[in-house]
Amino acid sequence: xxxxxxxxxxxxxxxxxxxxxxxxxxxxxxxxxxxxxxxxxxxxxxxxxxxxxxxxxxx
Length: 59
What we know:
3 helices
């Protein structure tokens, strides 16, 4: 199902589905949208955000 959505809808259309998804799965009025821009062209990140799946760790 997710693959069908990715193939058949634009990013903007998928974004318009977000309020409906939130209403179904979390009807509380609290929420946020995170826009992630990462201009770092390596996999080594010096910010070390705990929630980020992007950056690799220096060994």
